[in-house]
Design a protein that fits this description.
Blueprint lengths: L3 E7 L3 E7 L5 E8 L2 H11 L5 E6 L6 H9 L4 E4 L1 H9 L10 H4 L1 H4 L5 E2 L2 H4 L3
Parallel strand pairs: 1-4, 4-5
Antiparallel strand pairs: 1-2, 2-3, 5-6
């Protein structure tokens, strides 16, 4: 396996992840709190794979807190713009709502459109 993509759908009090392997096979899912214990559990779940990239929805918005922590811990983080993920959901069966596992995680929404969340962008003062 060449590595996994860990899609992160952040919210105010939780973050949902979906780990995708080769061929977009779902290897693991989970929901974690945004407190220290929840973040540590999420990070440990992701670190089960030595080669990984975290795809966080809205690194400059709602996902900023998760992206900052991941970058500070030396993880590779890419941004999935929230606008793009919402646009992708419109074409799913949920008419724009997050109703199915396939539409809940950023890694499935925009594989070609991800962009790196650099340390300087994720670590805002």
């Amino acid at each position: 396996m060449s590595g996994v993509i860990i899609g992160v759908d952040p919210h105010k009090v939780s973050a949902t992840i979906e780990v995708l392997g080769d061929g977009e096979q779902v290897l693991r899912t989970g929901r974690f709190g945004t407190d220290r214990a929840g973040y540590r559990a999420m990070l440990a779940a992701g670190r089960a794979w030595p080669e990984r990239t975290w795809a966080v929805e809205g690194c400059q918005g709602i996902g900023r807190h998760v992206a900052q922590r991941l970058v500070a811990d030396g993880e590779t983080v890419v941004d999935v713009p929230a606008k793009l993920s919402a646009r992708a959901r419109v074409f799913s069966t949920g008419q724009g709502r997050k109703t199915a596992p396939l539409t809940r995680t950023p890694s499935r929404w925009s594989r070609p459109a991800r962009r790196p969340c650099g340390q300087s962008r994720a670590r805002m003062s």
